[in-house]
From TrEMBL:
Domain called HTH lysR-type: residue spans: 2-59
Classification via InterPro entries: LysR_HTH_N, LysR_subst-bd, WH-like_DNA-bd_sf, WH_DNA-bd_sf
Organism in which the protein naturally occurs: Phytohabitans aurantiacus
Full protein name: LysR family transcriptional regulator
Family membership noted in the UniProt record: Belongs to the LysR transcriptional regulatory family.
Coiled-coil residue spans: none
Keywords: DNA-binding, Transcription, Transcription regulation
């Protein structure tokens, strides 16, 4: 009988590429991961890994097992969902991951609605950058999470997860209210407030500006949109902010709509869509998003 926990390790090795990365993802030691994979090979009865020095690659049998393991893991999620649906009421933990703007603008009202309808749920929220959500879902640290991307820099869907749309937001150019700027092109020589290099917001802003024919000149870096808007109001530069973060801009900020959109999706593991707690969260946060953005 093949052990499900070891199958997950093999799938993670296929995705992450190294035993060290798998060990880090699961807070194991590399030797512990190696031992578990060796045991899985004995259970399978065929070699699953090819070792060359410190490098490890999946054999043909290993790749076949990974493909079937993904199906098995999705089936287990569906089974858990079916069993949960037989209960008389929702109870137990629901672990939610969301990016900071959503935690501020969407999650509180969603938690209130869920708590009123399903008082047996133990709702737990973790603030995460969207790039960290897929791994947290795969490693079962989350049950549901929010992802986003920009149409200017689309992100390929994670093949190990399912996702449904939540928001499609306008993106705004935020400029000082007393300034003459009336378009993105007019900010060519302005100073900019950018997100930290390497973040999706930073990459999206660079791409939006490059499409307009220039590279923004950064003076400040800030990842919290409330801070960004405060800096704009203080005349420290211009920036790009999504609609969810710009609902109540401070005095001294003028917003100019851009053709760019930010798209948010609700993600969960394959097979978890019909889990009553996941379905309840999707319904509640969609209602909150509709009331907040529309």
């Amino acid at each position: 009988m093949l052990d499900v926990r070891r199958l997950r390790l093999l799938c993670d090795l296929s995705r992450l590429g190294t035993i060290a990365a798998v060990a880090e993802a699961h807070t194991y030691t590399p030797s512990a991961v190696s031992q578990q994979l060796s045991t899985l090979e004995r259970e399978a009865g065929v070699p699953l890994l090819e070792r060359t020095g410190r490098r490890v690659a999946l054999t043909a049998a290993g790749r076949v097992l990974v493909a079937h393991a993904e199906t098995v893991l999705a089936a287990l999620e569906q089974t858990s969902a079916a069993l949960a649906a037989l209960g008389t009421g929702l109870s137990g933990p629901l672990r939610i991951g969301a990016y900071p703007t959503a935690v501020r603008a969407l999650i509180p009202a969603t938690l209130v609605a869920l708590g009123q309808r399903h008082p047996g749920l133990e709702l737990m929220v973790t603030e995460l950058d969207p790039v960290d959500v897929p791994a947290a879902l795969r490693e079962r640290r989350l049950d549901v999470g929010l992802l986003h991307d920009y149409d200017a820099v689309p992100v390929e869907p994670d093949p190990t997860l399912d996702a449904v749309p939540l928001l499609d937001e306008t993106v705004f150019l935020a400029v000082p209210a007393d300034g003459p700027t009336d378009s993105l092109a007019a900010t060519r020589d302005a100073t900019w407030i950018l997100a930290s290099p390497g973040t999706l917001c930073h990459t999206a802003t660079l791409q939006v500006c490059r499409t307009a024919g220039f590279t923004p000149r950064a003076r400040h870096h800030a990842d919290d949109f409330a801070t960004v808007l405060a800096l704009v109001a203080a005349g420290q530069g211009v920036s790009v902010v999504p609609q969810l973060a710009a609902a109540r801009p401070p005095a001294g900020v003028r917003l100019i709509a851009l053709p760019t959109r930010r798209r948010t999706r609700i993600a969960y593991r394959h097979g978890a869509a019909t889990h009553p707690a996941v379905a309840a969260f999707v319904t509640a946060i969609r209602a909150t998003a509709s009331d907040t953005v529309n």
